[in-house]
Design a protein that fits this description.
The protein has an 8-stranded mixed beta sheet. It has a 6-stranded antiparallel beta sheet with strand order 12-13-11-14-16-15. Strands 5-6 form a two-stranded antiparallel sheet. Helix 2 runs antiparallel to helix 5, helix 3 packs antiparallel against helix 4 and helix 3 packs parallel to helix 6. It has 2 domains: 219 residues, Carbamate kinase, CATH 3.40.1160; 118 residues, VC0802-like (2-Layer Sandwich). It is of the alpha/beta class. Helices cover 39% and strands 24% of the residues. It has 13 helices and 16 strands.
């Protein structure tokens, strides 16, 4: 079996949904499991619904109706008329979330988030599966929550691999073409969980690992893996092949084409990954597999925005040693801060972090009790893999004030105040 993953950009409108069929007809779709994200910017829109639920109860119903109407418009365009069957299916999903929000009194933001934002994938796959059926592509709609089993760490759940593998093999057995969701899973109590933003790639890899798939193809709005985000860098170069190891490095540093968790399960079973353009499915794209050198060998540029740089020093000017560092990392873990870069000296310790869960204020309160803390919020972290002198000069000439610079053999990083 092969696994295809289509992201939100590929299904942002009716033409995108129709184009999936063009891709499938070009590649073949027998013995294929298709993983699909929410349509376009639906996840962002549903995040606004969650925000409204907690901050402005009078607004969340209207925000949800906007999302519902957007999907109704796509359905009408797909079928050139009102299609009551699929409209009723979609309405049932929206009504379920609306009823949930009207009746729950939970103040657990992350739990409510997962129950609401998961709607995007359930709706997109319902529409796409039905449209494929209407175009004579027989398929089975598969609820990923029956397959992917996690703990109850909402918004960034951890996988139960053994349970997941068994569930996927049971649910997929005997089926030839399937449509399922990325990003979503379920906790032991049956509640919906999610795998973190952009987690649909990871879902595709999970299905591939459990099924021993022949390959995974991620269909994107770019020709493959580029050596930089074309929205941020001019004259980017297509990487025709890269190794699992190099792809993991790029993903770890924040390359947006491949989700950081995606590559590890594929590497364990040596399942090749292809990143290709849904606009030009005949083009080769990028191949990721075992032992391949980077081709071409060029510097690769990665940017992470909205970071926070903390510089810690002891109040009595004593050394920052193991006990201090252990305490710092315990607090980072407690307040769920992702550490992006570390630099230490005898009397100071600098860390670049991502404040995903908006707990920076609480972290700083805890740190200030023992350390002198200097905060630079809203900075960007630039990373260059396989840097050379021209690449270093290019970044230094292109960015604002450099607050921290760090280099290893293959990687240079700069924390920049824009």
């Amino acid at each position: 079996m092969k696994i295809f993953k289509f992201g939100g950009a590929s299904v942002k409108d009716a033409n995108g949904v129709k184009n999936i069929l063009n891709v499938l007809k070009h590649t073949g779709f027998d013995n294929t499991l298709i993983v699909v994200s929410a349509m376009g910017k639906t996840t962002n829109a549903l995040e606004r619904v969650v925000f409204s639920f907690f901050e402005n109860k009078a607004q969340f119903s209207a925000d949800l109706e906007l999302v519902r109407n957007q999907h109704h418009s796509i359905i009408k365009e797909l079928y050139d008329a009102e299609n009551k069957v699929i409209t009723d299916k979609v309405n049932a999903l929206f009504d379920g979330v609306l009823d949930f929000l009207k009746t729950t009194d939970s103040d657990d933001y992350s739990w409510v988030y997962d129950q609401v934002v998961s709607l995007g994938e359930l709706v997109s796959t319902t529409i796409i599966s039905d449209y494929m059926q209407s175009q004579d592509i027989d398929n089975t709609w598969l609820d990923a929550r029956k397959c992917i089993k996690t703990d109850a760490y909402y918004r960034d759940a951890n996988l139960y691999w053994t349970d997941t593998e068994a569930a996927i093999q049971k649910e997929v057995a005997g089926k030839r073409t399937l449509v399922s969701q990325g990003f979503i899973a379920s906790a032991p109590n049956g509640d919906t969980t999610t795998l973190g933003r952009e987690g649909s790639d990871y879902s595709a890899a999970i299905f591939a690992y459990a099924l021993g798939a022949d390959s995974v193809t991620i269909w994107k709005d770019v020709p493959g893996v580029l050596n930089g985000d074309p929205r941020k860098f001019d004259d980017t170069v297509l990487l025709y092949q890269i190794s699992y190891r190099e792809a993991i490095e790029l993903a770890f540093y924040g390359a947006s084409v491949i989700h950081p968790k995606t590559l590890q399960p594929l590497q364990r079973k040596e399942i090749p990954l292809y990143v290709k353009s849904f606009e030009n499915p005949e083009n080769p794209g990028t191949a990721v597999s075992k032992g391949k050198t980077l081709d071409p060998m060029v510097p690769c540029y990665i940017v992470k925005e909205n970071q926070t740089l903390l510089k810690l020093s002891s109040k009595d000017f004593s050394f920052i040693v193991e006990d201090n560092i252990s305490e710092i990392f315990a607090l980072l873990h407690q307040f769920k801060m992702r550490v992006e870069m570390i630099q230490s000296s005898a009397i100071s310790f600098s860390i670049c972090i991502f404040n995903k869960y908006s707990k920076l204020e609480h972290l700083l309160e805890a740190l200030n009790s023992k350390f002198k803390v200097e905060v630079n919020d809203g900075v960007s972290l630039y990373t260059i893999r396989h840097f050379d002198k021209p690449a270093i000069n290019f970044i230094k000439n292109a960015v604002g004030e450099i607050l921290v610079e760090q280099r290893t053999t293959n990687t240079a990083q700069f924390v920049v105040r824009d």
